Structures are given as C-alpha cells and as structure tokens.
Write the structure tokens for this entry.
Amino acid sequence: MGAPALLEAVEIETGPAPEAAVIWLHGLGADGNDFAPIVPELELPAGLAVRFVLPHAPPRPVTVNGGAVMRAWYDVLDRDGARGEDEAGVRASQAQVEALIEHETGRGIPARRIVLAGFSQGGAIALQTGLRHPVRLAGVIGLSCYLPLARTLAAEAAPANRAGPIFLAHGGDCPLPRRVAEAVSAYTHDSSIGDQEKCVYPAVLDEGRKLASQLLNSQPDEVAFVGPTSLALSFIASGLKVRKSANILIYFDDYPSNVYPWLAMAEQGVEVRMLNTRGLGIIRVKDVIGQIDENTRMVALASCHFISGYRIDCQAIGEALRKRNILFCLDAIQTVGAFPTTTENVDMLAADAHKWLLGPCGAGLMYVRRSVQERLTPPIYGWHNVRCPNYVAQEQIVFRNGSQKYEAGTHNLLGIVGLVAAMELILELGVENITRELLRRGYSEADIERILGGNMLRVMERQR
C-alpha cells in the first residue's frame, strides 16, 4: 500500500523560510481553521519563523452522533467504550499525519524541529503518532485528549521519542452541563418575578448538604457552603488554633490556594514544614510519615496534583495520621466528582464546584468533621452563623451548631442551585462509573511511568 494522499491544510507562516513546523490537529466536527486564530495569540519572537500546518480531517460517519457525517480523525463507536475503539481509523489517521511529517522534512524542516499538537480527537492522534514515530520529534502537545490504543503502546513506542518533551493539558473550568444551566436559568427566572431567597431557601441548602454528604460519605451537618477552595482553606488556617511549639506539614509545590493559607500560620508562631518528594506531586504514605514528629498537628495536602495529575492515597495517608492524632486537611477540588473522595480518614476538606463537581464557580464545599468543629473557630461573624433571634444582635457571641457556624451571611443561592443539580447528576451516573470511564481513556500514573520511564513527570517539572 502506498503513502496516503496528503491532507488538505491551512498553512500559516510566521516568517520567511520557516525553520520549524507545528502540525496542529483539530477536534471532532471542526476543521483546520479552528485553531488558526491561536497563532498570533502565541506571540512568538519576531525572528522565529514557524510554519503552522492545520490539516482538515476527512469527513466520515460518526456512530455516536447517529451516523452523521463530519470531519473526524476516527469513528467514535459509543460513549462508554463498550464496543471498543476504531483501531483502523486511528491507524489510518496516524499514517496521514506521518505523511505530513514527511512532507515537512521534504521541505527542509528536520523532524527534530517539528511539533505535533492536537485538541480532543486531534490530541489523541498527536499522541498516537508522536509516541510511535521512529525519528525524534521536537515534542508532542495534547489538549483535552486521551491516549488511544493504549494496550499496544508498550510494544509500539519508538525509542527515539521515549525521552521527548510531552505537554498535556486540560481546561481549568468545566462547561456547565445542560441540567445545571437549566436549573440556574429557572432560578434566575423565578427570582425575577419573586423573592430570590424564598423561592429556594432553605430547602436548597438542606438538599445540597444531603447530596454532598453522599458524595463525601459524611454527615449533612459536616458540610458548609462557603465558596471557593481558597476561602475554605483560609477559614481553616485562620480558625484552627495551634500552639507555637507545634508544626504543620504542607507541600510547597501545590496550587497556591493550598500553600498561602498555611504559610500565613507562621505569623502565629507555628512552624510550617515543606514536604520533600521524589517527583512533582508524588506523595506517598512513607513520605508523609517520615517527615512528621510528635509536634506535628496537621498535614495539608491536595488529593491530586494540579500539574502532574498524581493522585495520592488519601485513605492510607489519613489513616496513618489518625493513628498519630494528627489532623488531615485535603484540597479535593481535583478529584471530587471524578474519583471516590470520601472523608473516613479526612478531618477537613475543601472543593470548589467548577471542576469535576460540574457546578458554577464559587459554589464550593467545605467539610469539617464533627469532632473537629469545636476546635475550629470561625474567623468571620455574621447574622447567619452567630445566633441572633429575630435578627436582633445579642450581647454574647454564640455560634450556631454544626457546619452552619462557618456560613456567616447570605448564601450564593444561584451557585448552590447549580451545584445541587450537578451533584444530582454525578450521583445518578455514579462516581465509580465516572472513574471507570476516565481510567479507560488513559493510563494510570504507574502505566505512564512504566512505558515512558517517568518522562511525563520530568517534562511537567521543567514546565513549572
């Protein structure tokens, strides 16, 4: 069989006589024009001449879309992967991208100066081709994609690109599911013709606590609605009283929201220790236990690192800390809704809604174990969390019972309405089913390290 016909493509050159090339593959249903506007946004140096090649995928029927014909790099047989992958389509597109690489080398650009990039289906094909290409490439970029034909990669991976740079990225915020958007829209409509509190309050809070407690395997009165992760973690850091001779253990390379609140505790005379790890976000039980002592009062970690994607064993770490009477605080925004993230061995937890919880920004959850609530004094005061019969201020400050002691004032009802709809959707689908689908679409951390020799994590570290 001869080489496939060269795909039609949009070409953009940032200067005369390009010395490098980027082959950028679009997503399902789009075409090469989709990413053309990104070229000027990259603001490349004036003297860097790069040819951007943005090919059009061939039109084909897509089964999951009712057989509608659209541009696609391969067929999508169903939503849950039960019918397998379109291996023939994936490999045909791989061959077409190989032909584009050969065409660029024929125009004088060596493979080591060619980057493969792609979004969604295009990202999958960029990974499929780049990891198997026999000649060293400049690198591979995959945006909001997964690793296709994962079962064959170990046998087919090309030695030339095992150590090549790989950049993987996904969106920082979720698109609101239709159900969530409709719930928010209905609430805003009702609020435009009536009282915006009375149409949902307090029922939406009760329902939200119940749903959140199902997700977290906690009790409803352990869940508070305080907004962003940063705010919840700041509440914890400000409200937790730790004696001056004590220390806390944090991971400095976490997202800033899970670093700054704890650094501020140094102003109370608390020693803030930085956890040492063997790689970006790779935190094991023995790493934590080896760096605590009899004066450690709390360990604050993220359930999943925001760059490397490494998920820690929250239950094992929490269990080990509980045996030592050390509090465990978890920034869980990267896993709640996507992977089981429960609180059996977690004392405090924070997660905003705009990632895997599929809700509006600023409508996050804060969890505080009942036995810890007495030790965690709210750093803020208002009509809702301090008792005020008939809205009359009292001479003494007496906090309300349960998690409501952390909700000082009027709630973000619009956001909570959306969050409730999102949690209903997640629980209907089942977190375990969501996890299974996510793992089906890509390798685990152990698989990545085994096949690529840990190269992904090393590349991520260089990108920090």
Observations:
- The radius of gyration is 25 Å.
- Residues 240 and 375 are 7 Å apart (CA to CA).
